[in-house]
Specification:
By secondary structure, the protein is α+β, with helices and mostly antiparallel strands. It has helices at 2-36, 40-46; strands spanning 50-58, 67-78, 83-92, 95-106, 111-118, 125-129, 131-132, 137-145, 152-163, 166-175, 178-189.
């Protein structure tokens, strides 16, 4: 009788442990699914899929007149709607320009993340930041290396959705402790 009781108690303990492990596995699986599933922020990115014309104004020196150029961009969602890839082509001061951007929303960190690379350098600008629903603006903060000085410079980029067919991107850089407007891109959907 004692052996049967001990065996039943051992079985009950084992089942209890197994049930808790399965509950932990289910909780872990739910967390992973929440992390990997595109949500509302990904829909915001997808709303700008398509082709755009870009009017670019760039201030190389705040005391000098800006340089102007144009480009064309095309955006599409990739990897199951988790990221948006942008391909940008144009010219800058008579030189052909190409760029590639990847932007996504990190469900765990609750911020947008972005990587930008172009043929005007060999570095990659990585940045991240929040979305302000009231102003329909993503604000990204990052750093890049200034090729002239070799020093890291802080950058802030805002991407504002004006309407379904208009966006404005503004890039600010911080030099000598002062933030200055470096570039503005007015985008119109084609």
């Amino acid at each position: 009788m004692k052996k049967t009781t001990l065996f039943l108690l051992a079985c009950i303990c084992f089942m209890n442990i197994a049930e808790r492990a399965m509950a932990q596995d289910a909780d872990a699986m739910k967390k992973w699914m929440d992390y990997m599933t595109p949500g509302d922020m990904h829909k915001i990115l997808a709303s700008s899929n398509g082709k755009w014309t870009e009017d670019i104004t760039m201030w190389m020196d705040p005391g000098q007149p800006p340089m102007k150029s144009t480009s064309v961009s095309e955006y599409k969602m990739v990897l199951g709607g988790r990221y948006q890839q942008g391909n940008i082509t144009g010219s800058f001061n008579g030189t052909p320009f190409e760029a590639l951007s990847i932007i996504g929303y990190d469900n765990m960190k609750k911020v947008f993340i972005s990587s930008w690379m172009d043929n005007m350098g060999t570095g990659i600008l990585n940045s991240e930041g929040p979305y302000d629903a009231a102003t329909k603006t993503i604000t990204l903060i990052g750093t890049e290396t200034d090729p002239m000085s070799g020093k890291e410079i802080k950058m802030r980029e805002t991407i504002k959705t004006v309407d379904d067919n208009t966006q404005v991107m503004v890039l600010y850089i911080t030099t000598d402790g002062k933030e200055v407007k470096n570039m503005e891109i007015k985008m119109k959907r084609m």
